[in-house]
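Each record in this resource describes a single protein on a pair of labelled lines. The shape at a given residue is found from the number at the same position. The record below illustrates this layout:

***
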Amino acid sequence: MLIAANAAAWLYQLSLGDAATDFVYAYAVIPFRFLELFPRDPVELLTPVFAMFLHGGWLHILGNMLYLYIFGDNVEDMLGRGRFLAFYLACGVVSFLVQIAFASHSMVPNVGASGAIAGVLGAYFILFPRARVLTLIPLLLFFPLVEIPAFFFLGIWFLIQFLSGAAALGQSSALSGGVAWWAHIGGFLAGIVLLKILLPANAARRPTIVA
């Protein structure tokens, strides 16, 4: 259902044509605008929820939905449907708030499910560290498929996000765009924390299928 909701929002964006830019600016998280209007504008307070269903291009949404498809069902199986939905939305909101904290001067719209999905990855990192993730490894002209433990795969992913976010500190201007590294970091850590809060006591007895 989350994948379908993201896909529907993306198709709606495409249907707007030239008006899509104004639509994205209206409902995206723009850190400087958010801080200026908080908490006077109720619509602005909801932009972290709206923005996680918007995307910046085909590669953006396809990459996000691939990660959600691979890792999301296993985490949902452990949390249950209702808790997983609350978990997903909370991780997305927290991820945007962390990005705002580290880029408070930015006037660039932030959109995408990456922060929420980073939360799913954080939960997966804790729940299934020994699961094997089939990974495409680029080696010059060869692209072998290798099974990598989730602990290593997601650990490297988080390290890349952290190093990239640290390198970007102080180098961006109010109008510079790019990847919201700190949203990924915030979402991943939020996923670990929220998992501890929302995980049912009987989760260990739920049947699971790992990637």
Observations:
- Residues 58-79 form the longest helix (22 residues).
- The two ends are 20 Å apart (CA to CA).
